TrEMBL record:
This is ubiquitinyl hydrolase 1. Residues 632-1162 form the USP domain. It catalyses: Thiol-dependent hydrolysis of ester, thioester, amide, peptide and isopeptide bonds formed by the C-terminal Gly of ubiquitin (a 76-residue protein attached to proteins as an intracellular targeting signal). It is an enzyme of class 3 (hydrolase). Residues 771-789 have a biased composition (Basic and acidic residues). It comes from Lentithecium fluviatile CBS 122367.
Length: 1212
């Protein structure tokens, strides 16, 4: 059973609750039978269960089940069957648990068994899957087979999943009003005056069919025959339901009527008598009819009660099937962690991925987590590092002393986690990401190359690290090399630094190298040659051992590669490159053509044997854009991904860029007289504020100049620029220049000392505090490293399990005899200063930075004139600021107030919608107290419109991110938001707004109802879900805690769980209907202005954020109007992007969402935007030795001590 991970019974049941075969093909894995992907703590979190999957609500099919009784223990002949169906998707699930003895396996797992308290199931195979059938494997029953991995346990498990007996097309045929109307019209033509005068209701066909099937299960004389011309039957079923009737067992016949005319009739199905649930492995016709009745019961109850008046249907109230499943699987009363009384609901929450990795669930008590770890190790040793990591980090996350003690014992026994494998590779200077492409011999060669120059103690540590790599790779060769023994052919080759493909000719050379390094190696070398000679049956090697020489041999593979001047024969050679190499050799060595051609033939054969033919093997490649025609990227200098996005956007605004590049002639004079009347942002501009703005402009000019002239694909912004953009205040006289800070280890005797820096401390990290705490030690970067800004949080803090300093072994080593010397770090004071700036950065988003940048630019430049309230008019105001009028209407009287705004805020309101719909809310009519109505409009719209999306929301006092999708149009028409347009007067526009507001009022009413159903005091639970959970609790309490209720309460609560569940099912479709009505209303609202297209704006840029409310990562998409392409600017990487990627809705946990959208007026896009402005330097720069720094490093703690932080919410 080795090599195949399993799942404990609670884990398997939890996965079954959310497994949806309809979407398996799109998910590319079977949630039920496959192990979850290994969790990467550094990657963005992803949902374990796709959002589209049905969260099943299992109801028991009593007639087909053989259920365990409460408290019953299985014996040697016990078989349980829990037949159920989902009331949401109508799939059927038959769970059969077979405890019967199987040879020596005769002791089932049970809760009082200390070694095996729970079943641990391994997937054994699948029956019934037909991927080539029409519709794939979604339309056929499938059976998944599992067995318990415990050696004494005989338990086998099969899960049969059957699609709905009535397809969606069947349901539409039975219930669609348009189809029913056509059927009624056909009935009137067929039966004439005998036809019914009233059309059948949608509920009638399911109701009648259910009655017929009930009669077939309980046959009575006189009820088996239905004439086709029966008025109700004809209008309800007609002829187009024949296939449905035949599918469930109805038969038709033509009989002679009393008057001699032919009569078409239907006969009810004739199912066999009820049998034992285990009599047949395949469903009988009776089971089929029972299944259809359960589905019809669900369909009928989906209709509102008023639409079911007069129906014959008597509601069936099947019991929930989850608890019988738990009892059958022996996991109904397992020990749970303190504070958890029930298994986490798969409907609404997900455990941390490490639980799934162990095949466990989040409510397991510590001893069960330990059990799950042991079982996974027993069946899947190859993934031992991952399972140890899961247990170790969960032990720390839980704060469990017992689990942490067990982890310590396991570590002392040689267990290790993935980070230790990573460390082991890096110990030998091997990048872990490339480890899969490096063969064992290379790794062993690196190890042996070090042995001659290191101490015995260091050699032992090297062997220990090599042993970890050998265990992780499952390589006996590496493990043997680490143990320093030689017994096998592979060990002998490894010792000599050879592989199996190398010919005997190389062995004397490698033997000579070994003995030259150390003459004491001679005996070991001879032993290795002897082993190789015996394995290859090589007489030439035996002669070499005896006489010290070998006879010449024909050209071998190694010689062929050498002739073609290929140094590494383990890599794939591109055919065209190889051909070019051969042609060059032939031209320079015409006398060696036969030998070169012979070598080429051998090399081609070797390449095909290793990698397949050239058409079957392709090397990956990346697009390398020419620097002359491609924008430059900006490296992240610590939590500044959103600042980079802002800088990239500003660079594409051509007038602004030119103003900054040519700033000196337009800067504000700094005399008291010149500043006396200068006002920016309704505030007087002080001398310090103007100086700060001009310092920012000069730093921005340097950046823009580098973005134009750089010869590389990316550049690194200065910290000074970041500090000024991220802070607001006066008195910033100087900002530290990071490029002038001394780096390295200092000096000794006036000479620089080279070497690696000591491990960075938390304070030295370029990431925020949270990031520094959470990132693995080997991934933390110092101030000179580029770091992606990722401040997202995880489900629990599982990364501090070992506080291992960088450069140390992350296991449990013995303490060193003395600490290593740590040289001074002269840049620390500057680091502390920028640390404060980074902390400010973590609390801001792109919108706040953009507002601050606009203020700095306006403060720096001289104004052209003044606006109302003395506000300075300048290029920033002309480009980005709109004149927005707020109108308040009270008792028919209008009062207006205008204000300058550089952006518009919109909300998605927790549902997917279009940008126009969100803008309609902002500019639409709002009712205030005192019968006052308020709305807004553009008095004059800026040519560049910035629209910010409110993503941060508060629910029950807790912040969260609204992750709804905002659909964007490539062209946005602002006509509806303007005071007047080119073709419509103010009065005409107002008339259209009145029509729009009427529809918006209805939309708000529907939205209020939607919020009532969607928002509850329970996180992530809507009202139907709350009712379902309450129903489940009531059912559990009545069954398992009967003493909780008095007799009077028991009487009143009878049927309560069923009623709650029924009400939940009634409310759930209402939510879906509300969404549909609201979408329709928004389309109608949008259609009001469908002919208003005088003022088009084109989409230019989209700010994107991926993460949660507490952190994440920013990038920006920018459209190049000159070259008609989109690009993604993701810190240092700029690449072309497709519209499909940009505009699609991403289905995942914490998906990327737009936080800012920029539109540019269509008539000025070429004048105001230019995405590419490059003129790379071509002249080589002369390299000179840097002069010794004469001054001291500026202390940013002092310089930035009084900076006022921009107000804002935590960065999304």
């Amino acid at each position: 059973m080795a090599g195949k991970p399993g799942k404990t019974a609670p884990r398997l049941l939890q996965d079954l609750l959310s497994y949806d075969p309809r979407f398996e093909e799109r998910a590319k894995r079977n949630l039920l039978t496959s192990a979850p992907p290994h969790h990467d703590p550094d990657a963005p979190p992803t949902a374990a269960v796709p959002l589209r999957n049905c969260r099943h609500n299992f109801l028991n099919k009593e007639e087909q089940s053989l259920l365990p009784r409460p408290g019953e223990e299985p014996d040697h002949a016990t078989v349980y069957k829990v037949a159920s169906y989902c009331s949401r998707c109508r799939y059927h699930f038959d769970v059969v648990v077979d405890h019967r003895d199987n040879g020596e396996r005769n002791d089932p797992c049970r809760r009082n068994n200390r070694e095996f308290p729970l079943h641990h199931f391994l997937f054994q195979g699948e029956d019934g899957r037909d991927e080539h059938a029409l519709g794939g494997f979604q339309t056929k029953p499938r059976t998944f087979r599992f067995s318990c991995s415990a050696s004494p346990c005989p338990t086998d498990l099969s899960i049969r999943i059957t699609p709905p007996r009535l397809s969606e097309q069947d349901v539409r045929t039975l219930t669609d009003r348009a189809v029913l109307r056509r059927r009624w019209e056909a009935a009137k033509l067929r039966a004439g005056d005998r036809a019914d005068t009233i059309m059948a209701r949608p509920v009638d066909a399911p109701d009648f069919l259910n009655t017929y099937l009930q009669d077939s299960l309980n046959p009575q004389k006189g009820k088996a025959r239905i004439p086709l011309l029966n008025r109700k039957f004809l209008k309800t079923f007609g002829k187009d339901c024949d296939s449905i009737l035949e599918k469930v067992g109805f038969t038709s016949a033509v009989e002679t009527d009393d008057d001699g005319s032919p009569a078409h009739v239907w006969y009810l199905p004739k199912p066999p008598p009820a049998g034992h649930p285990l009599d047949s492995t395949e469903p009988t016709q009776r089971n089929l009819i029972e299944d259809v009745r359960y589905e019809l019961n669900t369909i009928i109850l989906d209709y509102p009660e008023q639409e079911r008046l007069g129906a014959r249907h008597v509601p069936m109230n099947p019991q929930f099937a989850r608890h019988p499943m738990e009892r059958a699987l022996g996991c109904d009363e397992y020990p749970r962690v303190k504070g958890r009384t029930a298994t986490r609901s798969a409907n609404h929450e997900e455990d941390h991925p490490y639980y799934a990795g162990l095949g466990a669930v989040g409510d397991f008590a510590d001893e069960l987590l330990s059990f799950a770890y042991r079982r996974q190790m027993a069946v899947d040793e190859a993934n031992a590092p991952y399972y140890f990591e899961c247990l170790q980090d969960l032990a720390v996350g839980r704060g469990s002393e017992s689990l942490q003690g067990e982890v310590a014992v396991l570590a002392s026994q040689g267990c290790f986690k993935r980070s230790e494998v990573t460390f082991a590779y890096r110990y030998f200077d091997i990048e872990p990401a490339h480890a899969h492409a490096i063969n064992d011999d290379h790794i062993i060669g690196v190890f042996r190359s070090r042995l001659a120059d290191i101490s015995q103690a260091t050699a032992q540590e090297s062997r220990r690290q090599l042993q970890i790599i050998g265990l992780a790779r499952g390589s006996d060769t590496i493990k043997q090399a680490a143990s320093d023994s030689m017994e096998t052919y592979e060990q002998a080759l490894s010792y000599l630094g050879m592989d199996k493909g190398q010919d005997d000719e190389f062995i004397p050379t490698m033997a000579l190298m070994k003995t030259s390094e150390n003459p004491a190696n001679k005996d070991t070398v001879n032993r290795a040659i002897q082993i190789i000679a015996e394995e290859r049956n090589s007489q030439r090697l035996r002669d070499y051992l005896e006489h010290g020489s070998m006879a010449p041999a024909a050209m071998d593979i190694g010689e062929a590669y050498a002739i073609l001047q290929v140094n590494d024969r383990t890599v794939y050679l591109e055919p065209d490159i190889l051909a070019s190499q051969v042609q060059s050799l032939i031209e320079s060595n015409p006398d060696s053509i036969p030998r070169i051609q012979e070598a080429l033939t051998i090399v081609r054969q070797d390449q095909e044997s290793r990698f397949g033919k050239s058409s079957d093997y392709q090397m990956s490649s990346t697009v390398d854009y020419p620097v002359e025609t491609w924008p430059v990227g900006c490296c992240n200098i610590g939590n500044t991904c959103y600042l980079n996005s802002v800088l990239q956007f500003l660079f594409t605004i051509k007038p602004l860029r030119e103003m900054v590049l040519n700033c000196e002639g337009n800067l504000q004079k700094l005399t008291p007289e010149a500043l006396e009347t200068k006002r920016v942002g309704r505030m007087a501009v002080s001398l310090a504020r103007a100086e700060t703005g001009q310092q920012f402009v000069r730093e921005l000019r340097k950046l823009f100049d580098r973005m134009i002239r750089a010869r590389t694909h990316n550049i690194r912004p200065e910290r000074t620029l970041a500090a000024l953009a991220l802070t607001r205040g006066e008195g910033v006289d100087s900002v530290v220049e990071p490029d002038t800070v001394q780096l390295g280890l200092g000096e000794i005797g006036g000479l620089p000392v080279s070497g690696p820096l000591p491990p960075p401390t938390k304070a030295d990290s370029a990431m925020g505090d949270d990031d520094a705490a959470k990132a693995p030690e080997h991934d933390k970067k110092g101030d000179n490293d580029d770091a992606k800004s990722d401040t997202s949080t995880t489900a629990m803090d599982l990364t501090d399990s070992l506080n291992v300093p960088a450069g140390a072994t992350p296991s449990v080593p013995e303490p060193p005899s003395r600490p290593p010397p740590i040289p001074p770090r002269p840049q620390a004071s500057a680091d502390q200063g920028f640390k404060k700036v980074e902390e400010v950065a973590r609390q801001q988003d792109a919108a706040e930075i953009l507002n601050n940048v606009f203020d700095l630019l306006s403060c720096a430049f001289e104004g052209e004139s003044t606006l109302r309230d003395g506000e300075q008019l300048d290029l920033i105001k002309k480009l980005f600021f709109s004149d927005v009028t707020t109108v308040r209407v009270t008792n028919g009287k209008r009062a207006s107030k205008s204000d300058l705004q550089d952006n518009v805020h919109v909300s998605t309101k927790d549902r997917d919608r279009t940008l126009c719909a969100a803008l309609d809310d902002e500019f639409g009519s709002t009712e205030l107290e005192g019968d006052m109505i308020k709305f807004e409009l553009f008095e004059e719209a800026a040519p560049i419109q910035i629209i910010n999306v409110r993503r941060l929301q508060y629910e029950n006092g807790r912040p969260r991110k609204d992750e709804s999708h905002l659909a964007l149009d490539k062209v946005l028409y602002l006509d509806r938001y303007l005071k007047k347009t080119k073709t419509l007067s103010e009065e005409q526009l107002q008339a259209l707004r009145d029509d729009q507001w009427r529809l918006q009022s209805e939309l708000r009413r529907l939205d209020e109802r939607r919020r009532t159903l969607k928002e509850t005091d329970f996180e992530k639970l809507d009202l139907p879900s709350v009712l379902e959970e309450t129903a489940a609790w009531v059912e559990t309490a009545q069954t398992e805690m009967p003493n909780l209720f008095s007799d009077s309460i028991k009487t009143e609560s009878n049927g309560l769980a069923s009623q709650l569940g029924q009400r939940a099912e009634e409310l759930r479709p209402e939510i879906s209907e509300l969404h549909g009505h609201m979408d329709k209303l928004e389309h109608e609202i949008d259609a009001v202005f469908e002919n208003c297209k005088d003022h088009p704006y084109r989409l230019h840029a989209i700010f994107i954020h991926a993460g949660s409310h507490s952190g994440g990562h920013y990038w920006i998409y920018i459209y190049d109007f000159q070259n008609n392409i989109w690009r993604s600017y993701n810190d240092e990487t700029v690449k072309e992007e497709t519209e499909e990627t940009i505009f699609r809705k991403v289905q995942r946990v914490h998906p990327p969402t737009s936080t800012g959208i920029v539109y540019v007026r269509a008539d000025v896009v070429d004048e105001y935007t230019q995405a590419v402005c490059r003129n790379p330097e071509t002249k080589d720069v002369e390299m000179k030795d840097a002069e010794a720094a004469s001054g001291q490093v500026i202390n940013m703690d002092t310089e930035f001590g009084n900076i006022e932080v921009l107000d804002g919410v935590p960065k999304e």
